[in-house]
Amino acid sequence: MRTGTQIVRVAFTYIGTVVGAGFASGQEILQFFTRYGWLATLTIALSTMLFIWIGIKLMLMAHDLKAASYEDLNRVLFGDRIGNWISLFTMLVLFGITTVMLAGGGTLFEEQLHLSYQTGLLVTLVLAYLVLARGIGAIMTVNSIVVPIMLTFSIVIVIYTWHSPASDNWLQITSDEPIGQIWFAPFLYTAFNLAMAQAVLVPMGSSIQKRSALYWGGLLGGVGIGLLLLSAHYALSAQMPGIAQYEIPMGNIINRLGAVPQIAYLLVIYGEIFTTFIADAYGLSLQLQQRIKLKPKILLLSILALSYFVSQIGFKTLLSALYPIFGLISIIWLVLMIWRNRHRAM
């Protein structure tokens, strides 16, 4: 039972770390998969296999190396010099995403709950500190609460779409996009998400004693991510092409279901914002602990305070510049992960 509980907690943490606010809104699925038509079903299957394979390998490598943070793993993958630069760049992007997630929490409070933007920021910061001060175990507990809600929500969406007259669109709609772009999308999506998820997957891998829990947790988590991708694609495809015009595509579907699903959707969105926020802040704090001689709680408070101040002005311009560059580096990172594991297997 104890091992089974660990497997589920690892799986939920894996899912919650990868599935962020962009996923919950439907925008990521639309841009990387649904707009490519029926072939998206195959590219989702490919992405799922990569999430299973690389996710398991990532956690097992962290376990074997007893890596304190993703920097330790990057040094093994890239060598000391390049690994150091990759880690620094990752740290910058992690801070950018942390700030944007915090700003997203404030915006959600302001636009949907009609409370002040500052209230949303402060509530999110306080909750985050209470979780992060307790370490990786608390992060796993939060994901064990948020992810089942998200899975239930996805089942409701699938049932709703099942009765739609266009429910078979996911197997029929076509796309004029270049075939190379269609098949590159799952690699880019998986690489970027795994490169960011290592902020939590690495310390989780080194903290779990049983390798079997990491293996089966990674397998279950990867399958869960794939099923969530497929369910969202299924729902969005039934509303194509009109759904593509909305900034929050999934929100347009939810608005048709009534007040209770709308409230549940807000909880899902905020939960995904929060899990991404604490995951990236935690990974950032672990890396900085290896570089700055400060007490962990003081360092954590400094990160949260800095993210609060930066969130006042927004981070969109810098983030839009970093995403394409980090996407490219993530692809290189994924190739090295695949090459290293193939080399070790020979």
From TrEMBL:
The answer on whether this UniProt entry bears the keyword Glycosyltransferase reads no
Q: Which residues form a coiled coil?
A: none
Give the record's keywords alphabetically: Membrane, Transmembrane, Transmembrane helix
Which domain of life does this protein belong to?
A: Bacteria
Membrane-crossing residue ranges in chain numbering: 7-24, 36-56, 85-109, 115-133, 145-162, 182-202, 214-236, 263-286, 298-315, 321-339
Listed InterPro entries: YkvI-like
Which PANTHER family does the record match to this protein?
CONSERVED MEMBRANE PROTEIN (PTHR37814), MEMBRANE PROTEIN (PTHR37814:SF1)
Instruction: Tell me what this protein is called.
Output: Transporter
From which source organism is this entry? Paenibacillus ferrarius
